[in-house]
């Protein structure tokens, strides 16, 4: 029985990777063949970003069992750190691919630090504190980036905190060749967009690799044990804070990398983009895909990113239809009649369900 | 089991959405081949039908601007199509929720449809994202209302119908310096908004250079735009008798109501984002009595009446604001440039772009939002703003 369970896990993991590879190959082939229309092509990079966001949030919400309402905050940290890194290195690192990699790593590092700062005190507590603190964190990051003025010239980075609200880019004292990278509320402007679908695919694969391996490792089992029963877990000598922090910080780092890719896909980006709604959107991906279900997050992120665009035919009723579809999907997944109907379709699986 | 079902539903959703994409693309290709057939049939002096697109927030917080832009452009298109003009338009407006990501998606959707010229997007952040794509793909773009300098900076094929933010800030400061030189100014602005911050920065700089006294600066963000008592008390206690508000009219309506409630009655001064306050649902127009604003368009002056009537009739009695007028002008500007450049409907968007870019710095256009508008190579418009004061629920020229 045990043997069978492990092999089933491997099958699911393997199909997740395989599904992603097939998605990548099919989309690349279609795009090369010119069959794919532009709106779909334009969605590929955001889809990869949101997939990575959803999988990383699933690590916190589904696997660790803590509610995080500020995942967009980590994305924001990663996005702006990544954009600063990429724009500063424009001359030093001419290769776009290498610069994107550096930007994503820098984004991940900054998000790691942010995740550690948020997680270290809060994860020692019990209850819903993490939800409240991450909610506040998302808002704080938004305000901080709004106050941030950053420029780069041959003397290095110039950073100003516009706390009084009366400083502008001119106060940075940039030389003539310098470029302004972040202009407070106006966000980033004229960023050289270097994000590509290939980079997005690699990001999602790395995210999957990290999350799936963590989930099925010794540490991952400790994390899941924590989720199921904290007292029992600490009674057998597992350091609860350490494992909670491990999952949370990993999740933050991956969100940072996704943010860097997202930030470098658009020439202009405002801090207000990463608001509470974006955090909730990612949470919807996770909940719809199933808590702890990694491939579910992938599919939900892709479907819910494409859906509003596919519904453009409905013009004014687009967001209404989007909401209705969302509700129907939620209802359908919890409908016992439908569930038993599909159960009957697959008789081989029936006994397994009864056993479980 | 739940997972299996979920998988099925999600897969079905995915297939449905992909199928939707596929079907729309096939529609597009068939329609574009139709149009190219008809184009080749009608060369020379025949009627040329161009595909014109617009983007704006048709849903969400800023929907009033996007709707104004799309309806304004639609009105111009309808007028042109009903006239005996050699140039006709096919028009389509897409929703972007004032978000850069959605706006880029909307742009891609319009390009799938076969758009040749873009009159949009509406909001600044979205326009910056789309302008970059337009520049790299060589699609001609003229935004009715995105006013930041960064929208057009360094992009030769992106133009503005409205003023730039610095231009508005400088004009406001100059106007106040000239007409109310002794005013003690308080500035109230939204510091997480590119538009508001942009005007604020140049206004304060210009006002300081002119020797005006800025006694108080109050900020708010999107999330704190429901209560302004702190900022208003700050302005009041610092003795400000003029409050400059480079903000949109929704928060401004709250500011006006709260100022009245606390018995603080300075002169309020707004810029083009303030336009629309009188037609806001549930707003008591008496609150806006004496409010000054610097805007290139007024729905109450005689020159614009035919447009106002046509717009009101087409949109269930909604009075057009400056955004609608900018978009209306935008369509006519594109038409004039297309005529001057001698473009034909079978040209690609990139060819049309190059032809229009060459024309834009040459033409001069007089429309609803200004006389003799001209454009520099940076894409910025040159026209004179007018200050209005609200009296008895209407815009009137201030008494000199």
UniProtKB/TrEMBL annotation, chain A:
It comes from the Bacteria. Keywords: Cell membrane, Membrane, Transmembrane, Transmembrane helix. CDD domains: TM_PBP1_LivM_like. It is found in: Cell membrane. GO terms for cellular component: plasma membrane. It is a multi-pass membrane protein. The chain crosses the membrane at residues 12-31, 43-65, 72-90, 102-123, 130-151, 194-214, 245-264, 276-307, 319-338. Pfam families: BPD_transp_2. The keyword Transmembrane helix applies. One of its GO terms (molecular function) is branched-chain amino acid transmembrane transporter activity. This is Branched-chain amino acid ABC transporter permease. It comes from Dysosmobacter segnis.
Automatic annotation (TrEMBL), chain B:
CDD domains: PBP1_ABC_LivK_ligand_binding-like. InterPro entries: BCAA_transport, Leu-bd, Peripla_BP_I. It comes from the Bacteria. Pfam families: Peripla_BP_6. Residues 23-40 have a biased composition (Low complexity). Belongs to the leucine-binding protein family. PROSITE patterns: PROKAR_LIPOPROTEIN. This is ABC transporter substrate-binding protein. Keywords: Signal. Residues 23-45 are annotated as: Disordered. Residues 1-19 form the signal peptide. Residues 50-387 form the Leucine-binding protein domain.
């Amino acid at each position: 029985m045990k043997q069978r369970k492990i092999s089933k896990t491997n099958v699911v993991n393997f199909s997740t990777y395989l599904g992603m590879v097939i998605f990548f190959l099919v989309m690349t082939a279609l795009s090369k063949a010119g069959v794919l229309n532009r709106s779909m092509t334009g969605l590929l990079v955001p889809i990869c970003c949101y997939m990575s966001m959803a999988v990383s949030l699933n690590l916190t919400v589904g696997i660790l069992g803590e509610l995080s309402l500020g995942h967009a905050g980590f994305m924001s940290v990663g996005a702006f750190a990544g954009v600063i890194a990429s724009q500063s290195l424009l001359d030093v690192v001419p290769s776009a691919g290498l610069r994107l990699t550096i930007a994503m790593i820098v984004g991940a590092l900054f998000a790691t630090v942010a995740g550690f700062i948020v997680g270290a005190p809060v994860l020692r507590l019990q209850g819903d504190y993490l939800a409240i603190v991450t909610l506040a964190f998302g808002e704080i990051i938004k305000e901080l980036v709004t106050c941030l003025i950053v420029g780069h010239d041959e003397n290095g980075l110039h950073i100003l905190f516009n706390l009084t609200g009366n400083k502008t880019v001119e106060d940075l004292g940039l030389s003539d060749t310098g470029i302004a990278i972040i202009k407070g509320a106006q966000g980033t402007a004229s960023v050289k967009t270097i994000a590509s679908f290939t980079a997005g695919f690699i990001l999602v694969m790395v995210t999957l690799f990290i999350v799936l391996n963590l989930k099925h490792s010794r540490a991952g089992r400790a994390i899941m044990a924590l989720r199921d029963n904290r007292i029992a877990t600490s009674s057998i000598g597992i350091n609860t804070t350490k494992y909670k922090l491990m999952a949370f910080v990993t999740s933050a780092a991956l969100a940072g990398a996704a943010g860097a890719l997202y930030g470098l896909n658009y020439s202009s980006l405002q801090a207000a983009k990463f608001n509470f709604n974006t955090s909730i959107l990612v949470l919807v991906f996770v909940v719809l895909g199933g808590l702890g279900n990694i491939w579910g997050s992938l599919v939900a992120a892709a479907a819910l990113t494409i859906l509003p665009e596919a519904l453009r035919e409905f013009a004014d009723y687009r967001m209404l239809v989007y909401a209705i579809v969302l509700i129907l999907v939620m209802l359908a997944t919890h409908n016992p009649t439908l569930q038993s109907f599909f159960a009957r379709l697959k008789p081989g699986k029936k006994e397994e369900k009864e056993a479980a | 089991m739940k997972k299996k079902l979920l998988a099925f539903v999600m897969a079905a959703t995915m297939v449905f959405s992909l199928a939707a994409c596929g079907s729309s693309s096939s529609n597009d290709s068939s329609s574009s081949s139709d149009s190219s057939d008809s184009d080749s049939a009608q060369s020379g002096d025949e009627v040329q039908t161009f595909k014109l697109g617009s983007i704006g927030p048709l849903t969400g917080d800023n929907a009033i601007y996007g709707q104004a832009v799309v309806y304004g452009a639609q009105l111009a298109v309808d007028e042109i199509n009903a006239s005996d003009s050699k140039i006709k338009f096919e028009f389509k407006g897409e929703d972007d929720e004032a978000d850069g990501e959605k706006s880029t998606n909307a742009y891609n959707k319009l390009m799938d449809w076969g758009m040749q010229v873009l009159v949009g997007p509406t909001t600044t952040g979205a326009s910056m994202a789309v302008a970059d794509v337009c520049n790299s793909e060589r699609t001609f773009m003229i935004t009715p209302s995105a006013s930041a300098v960064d929208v057009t900076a360094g992009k030769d094929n992106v133009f503005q119908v409205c003023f730039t933010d610095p231009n508005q800030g400088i004009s406001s400061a100059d106007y106040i310096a000239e007409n109310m030189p002794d005013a003690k100014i308080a500035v109230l602005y939204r510091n997480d908004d590119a538009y508001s911050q942009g005007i604020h920065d140049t206004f304060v700089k210009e006002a300081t250079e002119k020797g005006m006294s800025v006694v108080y600066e109050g900020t708010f963000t999107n999330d704190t735009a429901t209560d302004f008592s702190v900022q208003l008390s700050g302005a009041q206690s610092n003795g400000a008798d003029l409050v400059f508000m480079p903000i949109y009219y929704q928060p401004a309506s709250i500011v006006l109501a709260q100022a009245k409630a606390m018995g603080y009655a300075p002169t309020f001064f707004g810029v083009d984002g303030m336009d629309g306050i009188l037609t806001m649902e549930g707003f008591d127009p008496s609150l806006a009595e004496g409010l000054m604003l610097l805007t290139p368009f007024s729905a109450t002056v005689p020159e614009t009446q035919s447009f106002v009537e046509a717009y009101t009739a087409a949109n269930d009695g909604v009075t057009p604001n400056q955004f609608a007028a900018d978009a209306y002008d935008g369509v006519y500007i594109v038409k004039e440039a297309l005529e001057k450049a001698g473009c034909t409907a079978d040209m690609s968007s990139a060819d049309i772009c190059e032809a229009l870019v060459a024309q834009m710095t040459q033409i001069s256009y007089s429309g609803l939002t200004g006389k003799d508008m001209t454009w520099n190579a940076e894409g910025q418009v040159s026209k004179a703003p007018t200050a209005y004061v609200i009296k008895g629920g209407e815009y009137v020229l201030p008494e000199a």
